[in-house]
Design brief:
The chain is of the alpha+beta class and 657 residues long. It contains 22 helices and 24 strands. The strands form five sheets. Strands 1, 2, 3, 4, 5, 6, 7, 8 and 9 form a nine-stranded mixed β-sheet that branches. Bound molecules: ligand 0R9.
């Protein structure tokens, strides 16, 4: 028979030509498998059930990959019966040297860990359920029949629940060669409700055909078992394009960064193993990586995947550096892989798997092998078409930029969360996190604080009540600032630091509004706060963040009409213009903000659009004169204040306080 096109030129032939039955290592009988199936196939659910079919298919694939079979048939019939046929050499049927009256076939079917796989003797690279072998399938099947066509003779043997149900029979001469395994999983193990899914088996068969272009898999399924329209009842699966065909079918219709896929494969030279890969970058979808070792899926990745990630990242970085792109250094493997659609297949000797389900490859050599081979090919791929390489590089750099931006956002969120924890207890914060559109009201005393709390818009307005007079920073010693409770609360609430440590970008509110009573005490507190901001946070004033609220001093009402007046002059104006000449207008004077009903406070002083705010400015070209006034009025020397009063007394008017 013509040998299958072989990834492992010669090796399969050399290694297996000298097979003798003693190559099968014999470890133990099958009783433990039936007693504790989970130990061998990871459970007894539907996933484990499918492992049985995968195992037999893998054994046929081993024979194909080794170059002795070209055709496999994979069939699902009624009653969950699976049949796998290969046109390989046929399982050896000569007597086993240790068990003189048993054939090799019987030994490998009835003894745990039988098969050359464990010594790596039968196949150079082998799949199989990571070596559990056909004996496990046999042990967990109600019945299993094997038919071996070898040296023009056909032989059959039947097993029931792992035990021979008769002798190996020669059923006469045949023209073909190969092995047929047919089995029905045991309902005593898997339950009567567990059934094979045609879609899963079809997908399994299809991926095997993609993974080894030297094989043709004939898929068949009883039509009455097919529930979805996607699974065919009969299909020949053969993909001469290998993984490239696989990737094309996976990303059909998607746009890719480069029209050229990155494809490659190597032959197995000097027994070092073979690698095949197909990669495309599709910006509009999430990337994926499907990897395999000896045609076995490795959904948890492992060393071979790491090799591919490293190779792609290193080659792209080297290309970027050569092109003088400064942003190249920030590229990480995640940036390269996040939109990469990749299929990777390796064939190696005696692979090692990790994890409970053995779905992760841990062979270190696989990483070296993949990294070296792929790096070399990718360097060439990039150099072949600089325009495409540049497009890919800038796409990956964009991914890196996005990643860094997301990290920055997360960092800001984290910071704001931890800063929130450190906020002063008496602050009633707004719910919005970002400063845009938010306001902090600095109010005089707890009772005004209570009214303001009820009057505010909780989303955007925060309230910090200040108890009593704050420290006069213009006359206090430098160290006092930090010790002053009211000021340290204010600093915490603002979040932006003071003096040389002021950081505008850390300011937690867009506007800071001083809202004190319309009386001398209120004016004093406002001037102390203004002094504090002017001295400690001049930038906050310069950048237009500081305001003074204008609470009304009077409430005028008559015949259902209510108006508010800011000061005496405003009161007189309203009396003249808004009420009839002799109307007995009821005039009440607010002694403080705390006296106002929250609704009144909201309407007159806090609600944007209705209120009046005075923006505090300190023009930088008037810095010297502003400095002097602040010094005169608030500084340490009372004589300067006295002088100011003398000079300005002429402007003072008598007011009724
Ligand atoms: C239908 C599923 N196919 C198989 O399970 C299958 C196993 C198998 C096989 C050999 C050939 N074809 C096979 N199909 C084989 C033959 C020879 C040497 N090695 C392997 C030979 O003729 O010299 N075997 C898998 C394991 C073993 N055979 C054994 F050697 F361990 F028995």
């Amino acid at each position: 028979m013509a040998k299958a096109p072989d990834l492992f030129e010669n090796h399969g032939a050399e290694k297996t030509a000298g097979y003798t039955a003693k190559d099968i290592e014999v470890l133990e009988g099958l009783e433990p498998v039936r007693r504790r199936p989970g130990m061998y196939i990871g459970g007894t659910d539907e996933r484990a059930l499918h492992h049985l079919a995968a195992e037999i298919l893998d054994n046929a694939m081993d024979e194909a990959v080794a170059g002795f079979a070209t055709r496999i048939e994979f069939e699902l019939s009624l009653d969950d019966i699976v049949t796998v046929r290969d046109n390989g050499r046929g399982i050896p049927i000569d007597p086993h040297p240790k068990f003189k009256n048993k054939s090799a076939l019987e030994v490998i079917m009835t003894t745990l860990h039988a098969g050359g796989k464990f010594g790596g003797k039968v196949y150079d690279t082998s799949g199989g359920l990571h070596g559990v072998g056909s004996s496990v399938v046999n042990a967990l099947s109600e019945w299993l029949e094997v038919e071996v066509a070898r040296e023009r003779q056909n032989h059959v043997m039947r097993f029931e629940r792992g035990k021979p149900a008769g002798k190996l029979k020669n059923t006469g001469s045949v023209n073909r060669r190969g092995t047929i395994v047919r089995f029905k999983p045991d309902a005593q193990i898997f339950g009567s409700e567990a059934h094979f899914s045609p879609a899963m088996l079809y997908r399994m068969a299809k991926s095997k055909a993609y993974l080894f272009r030297g094989v043709e898999i004939h898929w068949r399924c009883d039509p009455s078992l097919i529930r979805n329209g996607k699974t065919p009842a009969d299909e020949i699966l053969k993909f001469p394009g290998g993984l490239a065909d696989f990737l094309r079918s996976e990303i059909e219709g998607e746009t890719t960064v480069s029209p050229r896929l990155f494809l490659g494969r190597t032959e197995n030279k000097d027994g070092k193993g073979a690698v095949e890969w197909a990669v495309a970058w599709a910006p509009e979808r999430d990337g994926f990586m499907q990897s395999f070792c000896n045609t076995i899926p490795t959904p948890l990745g492992g060393t071979h995947e790491q090799g591919l990630r490293n190779a792609l990242t290193k080659a792209l970085r080297a290309y970027g550096e050569r092109a003088g792109n400064k942003k190249t250094a920030q590229i990480t493997p995640d940036d390269v892989m996040s939109a990469a659609c990749a299929v990777l297949s390796v064939f190696i000797r005696e692979p090692e798997f990790q994890g409970q389900t053995k779905e992760k490859l841990s062979t270190q050599d696989a990483q070296r092998l993949v990294e070296t081979v792929v790096r070399d090919h990718f360097d060439h791929w990039l150099a072949e078409s600089p325009a495409e390489a540049d497009r890919l590089l800038s796409f990956v750099i964009d991914q890196a930029d996005d990643r860094l931006k997301r990290r920055q956002e997360r960092e800001t969120q984290r910071k704001s969360a931890t800063r929130k924890l450190r906020l002063p207890g008496k602050l009633t914060d707004c719910t919005r996190d970002a400063p845009g559109g938010t306001e902090l009201f600095l109010v005089e005393g707890d009772s005004a604080g209570g009214s303001a709390k009820q009057a505010r818009d909780r989303t955007t307005q925060a309230v910090l009540p200040l108890r009593g007079k704050i420290l006069n920073v213009a006359s206090a010693a430098a160290g006092k600032l930090a010790q002053n409770q009211e000021l340290s609360d204010l600093l915490l609430a603002l979040g932006c630091g003071a003096g040389s440590k002021y950081r505008e970008e850390e300011l937690r509110y867009e506007r800071v509004i001083i809202m004190t009573d319309a009386d001398v005490d209120g004016a004093h507190i406002a001037s102390l706060l203004l002094t504090f901001f002017y001295r400690e946070m001049p930038k906050l004033i310069e950048n237009g963040h500081l305001f003074l609220a204008m609470p009304p001093l009077y409430r005028l009402s008559h015949a259902g009409k209510t108006l508010y007046a800011r000061d005496d002059a405003h009161r007189e104006q309203l009396l003249k213009t808004e009420f009839k000449a002799n109307a007995k207008v009821e005039i009440s004077r607010f002694k403080g903000l705390g006296e106002m009903m929250p609704g009144q406070l909201k309407e007159t002083t806090m609600r944007p659009g209705q209120r009046t705010l005075i923006q505090v400015i300190a023009p930088s070209d008037a810095r010297a004169s502003t400095d002097r006034i602040v010094d005169d009025l608030m500084g340490k020397k009372p004589e300067l204040r006295f002088k100011f009063i003398q000079e300005n007394a002429q402007f003072a008017v008598d007011v009724d306080l």
